[in-house]
Design a protein that fits this description.
This protein is α/β, with parallel strands linked by helices. Helices cover 39% and strands 14% of the residues. It has an eight-stranded parallel β-barrel, surrounded by four helices. Strands 4-5 form a two-stranded antiparallel sheet. Helix 7 links the parallel strand 8 and strand 9. The longest helix is centred in the last third of the chain and has 16 residues. The two termini are 33 Å apart. Bound molecules: NADP nicotinamide-adenine-dinucleotide phosphate. NADP nicotinamide-adenine-dinucleotide phosphate binds next to helix 8 and strand 10.
């Protein structure tokens, strides 16, 4: 998918958040996950400095170091501004956000070093910071693009007014807003986030598109969205010869705003079916049937 600044990401992305939780985090296991993604057409890898208590970027970096040719086959997204309470940051007393130019610039340098690359394809501000100085952050982000350290910038979890504020102090266009969106989280369709993105022709990235796995794990729990959706997803999956995940992701990708789902499985056999979602047909009424089941009521 082409973004406004010429950054190009794959139609679906792979999220690295859970990488450190995998039973096998060896270089070979991570190379196998990356290869499985590439085979499915997923070339975009979504990181954040904090993932795995600041370890996931380095785990991924070990794989690139083992096979440097990978760098030219993939796009790297990473994020900054969350400061966790972590042994890595002994002076942090409270979890907070830091959008100061000093922090953002140093964070980019750390991400480049940990992943072992010269440039980040897309840098996202991870969460809106109540203390954000938009003038300072805007010119810092423009400066990072001018320096060649990042190719494009965007935001994550921003409301429309947060996007407007930061964009108003920047020369470069914000490329995306990465938000929680999917059958387990439909609020952005009505809270202004999707409408704002479409207004500005800004494709979205959807995090936890399966609700962090709850779409599957809660399917047998009465009263949940997952339980309501289960039978319909299974019927559609059978009809199209795919798995239920593919139907749920196709539902998300059907939206005209342009949605890049950020997939989170560590399991090779699951990654190996991700691409199915790109071939599942979705018509308006099927979309609404799933939307109604997700929300638990018909539209007004
Ligand atoms: N910007 C933000 O604030 C933000 C926040 C959260 C996440 N993210 C990004 O979004 C990415 C994806 O998030 P996510 O991992 O929550 O995505 P997700 O796809 O909603 O959930 C992935 C989880 O679902 C499980 N799962 C997948 N398929 C399954 C199946 N068929 N049956 C049962 N369980 C299944 C996976 O377990 P297995 O590994 O066992 O398959 C994994 O634990 C993250 O890696 C990160 O890059 C961004």
């Amino acid at each position: 998918m082409h973004f406004a600044n010429g950054v190009e990401l794959s139609a679906m992305a792979y999220g690295v958040w859970r990488l450190a939780d995998a039973t096998d985090t060896s270089v070979n296991a991570n190379l196998a996950r990356i290869d499985a993604c590439l085979a499915q057409g997923l070339t975009t890898f979504d990181h954040a400095d904090i993932y795995g208590d600041y370890r996931c970027e380095a785990l991924f970096g070990e794989a690139i170091k083992a096979r440097p040719a990978l760098r030219d086959q993939i796009e790297i997204v990473t994020k900054t501004d969350i400061m966790l309470l972590s042994s890595q940051w002994p002076n942090t007393r409270v979890k907070h956000y830091d959008t100061s130019p000093m922090h953002v610039t140093a964070s980019v340098e750390r991400s480049l070093t940990r992943i072992g690359v010269d440039v980040i394809d897309l840098l996202l501000i991870h969460r809106p910071d109540p203390l954000m100085d938009a003038d300072a952050l805007g010119s810092c982000l423009d400066g990072l693009i001018a320096s060649g350290k990042v190719r494009g910038v965007g935001v994550s979890n921003f409301m429309p007014w947060d996007v407007e504020l930061l964009q108003s102090r920047m020369t470069n266009r914000l490329q995306t807003n990465q938000i929680e969106l999917g059958l387990m989280q439909t609020k952005p369709f009505t809270n202004g986030q999707v409408a704002h993105a479409q207004t500005h022709r800004m494709p979205l990235m959807a995090w936890s598109p399966l609700g962090g796995g709850r779409l599957l794990s809660e399917a047998d729990q009465p009263g949940t969205a997952a339980a309501r959706l289960n039978q319909k997803l299974a019927d559609l999956a059978n009809q199209h010869g795919v798995d239920t995940v593919a139907v749920a992701i196709a539902w998300l990708m059907h939206h005209p705003v342009g949605v890049i789902p950020v997939m989170g499985s560590n399991q090779i056999d699951r990654i190996a079916t991700f691409g199915q979602a790109m071939d599942v047909p979705m018509d308006r009424q099927t979309w609404y049937e799933l939307y109604e089941l997700a929300n638990g009521h018909e539209v007004p």
